[in-house]
């Protein structure tokens, strides 16, 4: 007797999608990931954050809507895009390494003693890479299935969270990170000897243009 998983594995798809029975691809798993922080803080020790990450959101992109009111209807166009802030929760280690890196980054953004701010964004912004992995480890190095590179990052909020006599959980620091732009370096395995190709968000596909900007004079615009 066929099991439910076998039935799904041998699922029949429509003829315009290659037809026949198609196997399901292995999904990316939420717990196979790592987050790298580049040029965060002052001592180049972003690896201390990487080792203590609990969870991390992936980028969230939205477009503003431009409504054009016309006779009996509304036409909608895509306006400016916005990358939503994302959150990263990190364990606060007993050695203070995580708190030190977070504190250094906050000080780069604003000197809280002297009340002096950075001269420009490049003086404090950092890069953050979110990598989805295939589960490899040790001598079998993990393969990167997807990498998001976030540019122009800074700490929007740093929440040192709660202490509680009745709790047994680890102390954490919650970070909200704002960033300027993001690209998706791969939607499949990235070879170990390459930097990865941009095949998702950020890939060069060129602009799609009509014959003229107004669209007048193209096919189907005349009578008869």
Molecular structure report:
The chain has 224 residues and is mostly beta strands. The protein has one domain: Pnp Oxidase, Chain A (Roll), CATH 2.30.110. It is 11% helix and 36% strand. It is built from three helices and 13 strands, in the order H-E-E-E-H-E-E-E-E-H-E-E-E-E-E-E. Strands 3, 4, 7, 10, 11, 12 and 13 form a seven-stranded antiparallel β-sheet that branches. A two-stranded antiparallel ribbon has the order 1-2. The protein starts with a helix and ends in a 40-residue tail after the last strand.
Keywords for this structure?
two-stranded antiparallel ribbon; single chain; 7-stranded antiparallel β-sheet; globular; disordered C terminus; mainly beta; Pnp Oxidase, Chain A; 13 strands; 224 residues
Q: Name the structural class.
A: mainly beta
Number of domains: 1
How much helix is in the residues? Answer: 10-25%
Radius of gyration: 24 Å
The name of the CATH architecture is: Roll
What CATH calls the topology is Pnp Oxidase, Chain A
Classify the oligomer: single chain
Describe the structure concisely for a colleague.
The protein has 224 residues and is mainly β. The chain is 11% helix and 36% strand. It has a single domain, classed as Pnp Oxidase, Chain A.
SSE diagram, text form:
Elements: H1 4-9, E1 11-12, E2 21-22, E3 33-38, H2 47-52, E4 53-56, E5 61-70, E6 73-83, E7 86-91, H3 97-109, E8 110-111, E9 116-117, E10 126-133, E11 144-159, E12 172-178, E13 181-184
Antiparallel strand pairs: 1-2, 3-10, 4-7, 5-6, 7-12, 8-9, 10-11, 11-12, 11-13
